[in-house]
């Protein structure tokens, strides 16, 4: 079907604690610059309210997923995650998003990329941003995606069908610096990558409790400056190079749990403080807590013999199954990572991008793959 320019088939979905616009790659321009320019107009960026587009005026609701059949024999579909900035004309593919990932399997079935099973369907996903793989399993009674169910996740009202996401061990090291603990500008840190490059920092080492609200932490200029310095230095230590223009690594402040979990967290993405925690970020935190000698080893309350880790965050908790054991090089390595999320289809139809003549020009792309 030939559509006028700026009219694009779109499925708006909540994936985990995020919300985004899901597209078939074939419905978007193949040229990355043209694609990103169109997405800015679709989401209504740059504008702090995103009043003229789909975006919800927050990084967690200004996201896009681009999906296509995969040529990888180990995957059914390719998933490219794109973070659309709210107040800047910028689109980046420098990281994955595990929350938006929760909607990829249902979207693949909705768009006919994967045939639904009679009871349940598993979709193998290649995350284009990093090359990592995941398998999402969800209910499809009668061959149709069922979004209703009794699974509950913090940060989302009500309940929905569970989406079980399994992550095989990645090809990269769990500890990118080769150490359980590094020191950056006098602050002990643990640099870990179990799907999301993450830096663990004891909140007390930054003179905060780790129980503050995200807004209070964001409004602390001294803290922001220290975090910026740590992030830039950690990026180099982790082999990511100059991260001044990217959103990784994430910084997670950790403190003893308050509500029966393993640890309390406050995560920066990278400047705004997350109102919950990302799935892949939580996977990295959970694995990092199991590293002997890491900054979380003395803070976390883990149950011996139980791979389940409850990560507390500002609006509740996220449960991760995380197994860590010795790798071939003697360093800790991820063994198993799984999480239960939910997703919901909000609308399916055509989105009308604002006119290119009225949109600000996009910034230079920062979309290089990690």
UniProtKB/TrEMBL annotation:
Enzyme Commission number(s): 5.3.2.8
GO molecular function annotations of the record: isomerase activity
Pfam families: PrpF (PF04303)
Keywords on record: Isomerase
EC primary class: isomerase
Record-stated family: Belongs to the PrpF family.
Name of this protein: 4-oxalomesaconate tautomerase
UniProt organism field: Streptomyces broussonetiae
């Amino acid at each position: 079907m030939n559509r006028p320019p700026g009219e694009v088939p779109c499925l708006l979905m909540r994936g985990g604690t995020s919300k985004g616009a899901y597209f078939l790659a074939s419905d978007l321009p193949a040229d990355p610059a043209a694609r990103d320019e169109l997405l800015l107009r679709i989401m209504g960026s740059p504008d702090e309210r995103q009043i003229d587009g789909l975006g919800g005026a927050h990084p967690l609701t200004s996201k896009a997923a681009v999906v296509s059949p995969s040529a990888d024999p180990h995957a059914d579909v390719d998933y490219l995650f794109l973070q659309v900035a709210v107040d800047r004309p910028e689109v980046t593919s420098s990281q994955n998003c595990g929350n938006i990932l929760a909607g990829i399997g249902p979207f693949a079935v909705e768009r006919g990329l994967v045939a639904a099973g009679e009871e349940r369907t598993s979709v193998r996903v290649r995350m284009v941003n990093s090359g990592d793989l995941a398998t999402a399993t969800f209910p499809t009674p009668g061959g149709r995606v069922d979004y209703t169910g009794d699974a509950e996740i913090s940060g989302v009202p009500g309940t929905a069908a569970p989406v079980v996401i399994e992550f095989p061990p990645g090809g990269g090291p769990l500890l990118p610096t080769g150490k359980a603990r590094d020191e950056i500008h006098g602050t002990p840190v643990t640099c870990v990558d179990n799907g999301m490059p993450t830096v663990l920092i004891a909140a007390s080492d930054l003179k905060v409790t780790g129980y503050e609200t995200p807004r209070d932490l964001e409004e602390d200029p001294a803290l922001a400056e220290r975090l910026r310095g740590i992030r830039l230095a950690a990026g180099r230590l982790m082999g990511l190079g100059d991260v001044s223009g990217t959103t990784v690594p994430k910084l997670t402040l950790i403190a003893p749990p308050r509500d029966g979990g393993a640890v309390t967290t406050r995560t920066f993405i990278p400047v705004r403080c997350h109102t919950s925690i990302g799935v892949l970020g939580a996977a990295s935190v959970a694995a990092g807590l199991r590293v002997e000698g890491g900054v979380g080893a003395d803070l976390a309350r883990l149950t011996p013999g139980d791979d389940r880790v409850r990560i507390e965050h500002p609006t509740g908790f996220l449960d991760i199954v995380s197994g860590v054991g010795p790798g071939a090089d003697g360093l800790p390595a991820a063994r198993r990572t799984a999480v239960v999320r939910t997703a919901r289809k909000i609308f399916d139809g055509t989105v009308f991008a604002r006119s290119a003549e009225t949109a600000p020009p996009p910034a230079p792309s920062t979309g290089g793959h990690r």
